[in-house]
């Protein structure tokens, strides 16, 4: 029987195999090309997804347990009359209607707005000044640590310390201003200046932390932009106004928004230093909510005030972010 000759390609493969066998080398088998997504890449992505879920799970669980569920519960409670001792009674919108005729609530909103405006403006201006000086004069780690010290001290401790420092009889500050002929001032006891005193005390506490955040934002601005401004003959103030501030805007907006939310939640300094007095001059909204909920046991009405405050903060934050274009950068 006559055998068919091998195809040309097969014959070449046979010659190659024979030649490699003579040299003691066994050719490696060529792997087939994978179709579609490689199997290893698919497993790698699944592993990354599992790791992401694992790392996000504590934050998500914490948000649901400590924020989402209490918010939903608080909103429901705001439509009830509940004194913690008896069963809650559904009253609909009555608690929200009470807010419009509650002079103490309206005054607490006014006092809180004054506090926020004074605190945010002074804290931001002082923080910008600190960040600018750190960039120009010293970037020492020791300086940064000293600036953070007041922020690391709890608000309750700050309030207790300033009670002695600002005391009209034995306070250090009144002794110092007495040398220049200024009489003793009751900073916490005068209803005309008490809320401004609380705001400035908290500004002093937080200005170092705010300054460090802004200083970190300044480090992201390319040095070549400052060099170009110096080449054009720009002064220090012109460089700060036309270069630093526009390029720092996203960080500045973030700092202002976060500081504003924290300022609306002021409670501990007022509770320790003034207890809302004298009169109602420092009775901020958080303190009034606390008094209604845990001193007068009017949980439904306190929840209604908390819901209104939450909605107001959401609206103010959105407006700030939109007007300041926080998601856009002037850096091209």
TrEMBL record:
InterPro entries hit by this protein: ABC_transporter_permease (IPR051393), MetI-like (IPR000515), MetI-like_sf (IPR035906)
Membrane topology of the entry: Multi-pass membrane protein
One CC-aspect GO term: plasma membrane
GO terms, biological process: transmembrane transport
Superkingdom: Bacteria
PROSITE patterns: ABC_TM1
Entries under Gene3D superfamilies matching the protein: MetI-like
Localization of this protein: Cell membrane
UniProt keyword Transport present: yes
Keywords, ordered alphabetically: Cell membrane, Membrane, Transmembrane, Transmembrane helix, Transport
Family: Belongs to the binding-protein-dependent transport system permease family.
Name of this protein: Sugar ABC transporter permease
Taxonomic source organism: Actinotignum timonense
């Amino acid at each position: 029987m006559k055998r068919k000759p091998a195809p040309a390609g097969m014959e070449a493969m046979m010659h190659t195999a024979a030649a490699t066998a003579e040299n003691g080398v066994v050719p490696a088998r060529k792997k087939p090309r994978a179709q579609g997504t490689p199997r290893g890449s698919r497993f790698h992505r699944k592993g990354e997804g599992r790791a992401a879920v694992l790392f996000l799970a504590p934050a998500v669980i914490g948000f649901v347990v400590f924020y989402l569920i209490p918010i939903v519960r608080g909103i429901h409670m705001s439509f009830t009359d509940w004194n913690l001792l008896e069963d809650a009674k559904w009253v609909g919108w009555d608690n929200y209607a009470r807010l419009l005729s509650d002079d103490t609530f309206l005054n607490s909103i006014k006092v809180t707005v004054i506090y926020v405006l004074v605190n945010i403006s002074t804290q931001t201006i002082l923080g910008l000044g600190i960040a600018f000086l750190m960039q120009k004069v010293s970037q020492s780690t020791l300086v940064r640590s000293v600036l953070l010290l007041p922020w690391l001290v709890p608000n309750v401790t700050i309030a207790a310390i300033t009670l002695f420092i600002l005391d009209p009889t034995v306070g250090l500050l009144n002794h110092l201003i007495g040398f220049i002929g200024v009489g003793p001032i009751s900073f916490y006891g005068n209803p005309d200046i008490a809320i401004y005193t609380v705001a400035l005390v908290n500004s002093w506490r937080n200005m170092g932390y705010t300054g460090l955040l802004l200083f970190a934002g300044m480090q992201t601005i390319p040095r070549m932009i400052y060099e170009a401004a110096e080449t054009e003959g720009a002064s220090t103030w012109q460089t700060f106004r036309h270069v630093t501030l526009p390029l720092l805007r996203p960080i500045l907006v973030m700092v202002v928004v976060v500081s504003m939310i924290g300022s609306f939640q002021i409670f501990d300094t007022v509770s320790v230093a003034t207890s809302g007095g004298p009169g109602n001059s420092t009775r901020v909204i958080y303190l009034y909510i606390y008094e209604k909920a845990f001193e007068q046991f009017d949980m439904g009405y306190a929840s209604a005030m908390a819901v209104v405050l939450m909605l107001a903060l959401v609206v103010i934050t959105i407006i700030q972010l939109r007007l300041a274009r926080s998601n856009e950068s002037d850096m091209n």
